[in-house]
# Entry
Amino acid sequence: MKDSKMATAEKKERQSRGNVNINKDRCKGCGFCVEFCPTHALRFSEDFNALGYHYPVRLEEAACTGCDQCGAFCPDFAIFGYRYKSHT
Amino acid sequence: MKADEKAVNTGIHFMDGDSACCEGAIAAGCRFVAGYPITPSTEVVELIAQRFPKIGGIFIQMEDEIASSIAISGASWAGAKAMTVTSGPGFSLMMEHIGYAVMTETPCVFVNVQRGGPSTGLPTLPGQQDIMQCRWGSHGDYEVIALSPNSPQECFDLTIQCFNLAEKYRVPVFLMMDECVGHMSERVVIPPADEIEIEPRHYTEQAPGEFSPYNDMEGLVPRTTKAGDGHNILVTGLTHDDRGYPDMSANTHQVLVDRLIKKIRHSADDIIILEEDDVDGADIVVVSYGISSRVATRGVRMAREKGLRVGMLRLVTVWPFPENRIRELADRIEAFVVVEMNQGQIMREVQRCSEGRAQVAGVLNYGGAIHPPEEIYQTIAGVSS
Amino acid sequence: MTESVVTDHTKQETISADQNRVELCEKNPAEDFLRMDRIPHIWCPGCGIGTSVNAFVRALIEAKVDRSKLCVVSGIGCSGRVSGYLNVDAFHTTHGRAIPFATGLKLANPELTVVVYSGDGDLSAIGGNHLVHAARRNIDIKVVCVNNFIYSMTGGQAAPTTPMGTIASTAPYGFCEYALNLPHFVEACGATYIARWTTFHVRQLQKSMQESFAKKGFTFIEVIAPCPTLYGRRNQYRQGVDEMKMFKEVSRREKDIETRDAEIKPGEKIVIGKFVDRERETWLESMQHHYKEVLGDAYYPYTGAMI
# Structure
């Protein structure tokens, strides 16, 4: 049986070991994060930010490992990744 | 505060002006010198290289004068009193960093043992042709302080003055020597350390986080800090606001440059040192500085022997120029005679300030030799008739 | 349901027992070292300088560099603006003269960690003489050279690092000079640590920066960075990301690499990696040893700033 799109997103989110924090108004739309995300978990926004650029948004269908590769690439300090950590 | 007893070479010496300048720097607390060899100033750094390892100083012979002139700004921001020493061609290479020190309000001292120019010119012979260059050589509007010694003793005394003024006004200060003064040996008295007054750096008392590099003012001069004190300062040669942040606006630029100029101009009376001899009763006043002032004295004496009423005004401080004094005198004397080893750099200043109310004549040459006193006498006699 | 807050020096973590996971709060870890009141910075979209700064800040955090003793000195140009965005003692000096300024700063207070962060034109053309002699003297400063192949601040003129044949505003028909092989050059001069990475190799770059902080003496890290506005667009890389993809494609990290093989030619591989890691006495150490030996008790070591 084929999962619905929503169900896939939920599944991926469960598989995600981390997430990204995006400060969209600092972004200048260079696309380093979108291009080089190892799990392709980012895409460009449709709308513009305050500076007039398309900024990255999290692609719900893909898992984020929280590797922070996007954060390391970002020339504008607009995004960073972080890992979830189990807590008992 | 007082000079460091361990370092000051107290006593009566027979030394040349270059050596006296070195001893003056040491007495003033200078512990960082960056230099590059150039005749006729090299003796200063040679003696520094000899003396510094024994008194706790850092001397580095840089790869060129450009490097030397910015290394002293770096050292100054690390909290050291710093100096560089050069002559004509090297001085030309340093121009950009005069402006940098002015703009960033970095206390430092430039010594120029002047030789004949332009270009390589006369490496071993004197000149006074860099007087305007130290005033206007770097681009932009600014004010600096320049002193001109006429004896080895003054090379010692005025070097200390240079360091003190640099700290007081946060400005580069110039000791405009010349080859004759630098290489001439005379009696130099170096007093005990506790008789030498030195100006400490004026540090802020504000806490890190509160301090803003150009806002903690003492009159028109901001208090400072040094690298490593936790203030996270931003120092830039760009036009900056009082946080030190670059701000490319005409308004900020005007406010900044206006203050940089006024902090010197408004204190001109405090800064300017003049040596006057019989100026008040004179019809003619001879204006001179540096080595030229010593032969001028002889010319004045010859004129007085002929019954002429001649006064002598020696500029110990060349910049800021004693505009007010020249204006006052222009109102009541007949003529100025300016004696200098260039084509009238200070003579034009005297003309500017006397505004046509007194005649101005120059005894000028192209550098290379000091004037014969007779030539000075003849010019004085010429204007009086 | 319980909630507790754990803080460390760089990030604030909120632990939510409900979600059974830790989430970081709003703040980018780099922010602590930046003058956030000056962000956004002046660099164009797709410029690699910001990426190199990102690696630098992360290296500072990881290497636990004492921030109060850290000075960053820059020259003039796009990369020369780096110092002004870092919230440390920052000096923006004149064109080409960051190294001699840093020399004065370091020698007058040896306790400082002094970093020179500037561009290829600034450090290797107008400042080339200083680069030679600071490396030769082994002045203890850490040089980060952002190489974007061009003078970008002034509009894309050719630099000593512009690869032969590429287009620049002052080389409209292609540049016909040999490019300077920076790692080879500074190795000959005497640098103790030399590495080259592109801005695509951010992790390796960060690691090299960390290593350089632990290293005594003159260290040199070349960062190949995209300049889409003034180099890329004239040379088939429309955007920064296109140049980044090229870096990814042509960069080669080989075993036993030598700096003489590191020359950059258009269309050929870019050799990356750590080239040199060696020990030499620094200028200060060598001076102190020498004077102690020669002058004995008469030697009075410099004790730092006098007042």
User: Anything to note?
Assistant: Chain B touches chain C through 53 residues (CB under 8 Å). Residues 153 and 188 of chain B are 5 Å apart (CA to CA). Chain B has a mean pLDDT of 97. The longest strand of chain B covers residues 108-116.
